[in-house]
Automatic annotation (TrEMBL):
Cross-referenced Pfam families: DUF2630 (PF10944)
Protein species of origin: Jatrophihabitans telluris
Name this protein carries in UniProt: DUF2630 family protein
InterPro entries to which the protein is assigned, alphabetical: Uncharacterised_Rv0898c
Length: 67
């Protein structure tokens, strides 16, 4: 996998982490409302999926298969 093909996934991960961080730090000490908790859960699932995709693509590249 080249840097160019990794970049969109890495950018997505960066954006999701930034949003997660903003959500968590903005509400430190006051807690999250239900919509914010739902968004945080969605962010966490999306991050897991993005990291999995990146790992799959890197493994496919390493072993000469397609992900």
């Amino acid at each position: 996998m080249t840097h160019e093909t990794e970049q969109p996934i890495l950018q997505q991960i960066h954006d999701l982490v930034a949003e997660e961080h903003r959500l968590r730090t903005t509400h430190t000490g006051i807690g999250l409302n239900q919509a914010e908790r739902n968004r945080l859960e969605t962010l966490e699932r999306s991050l897991d999926q993005a990291w999995d995709l990146l790992r799959q693509r890197r493994a496919a590249d390493e072993f000469g298969t397609e992900a």
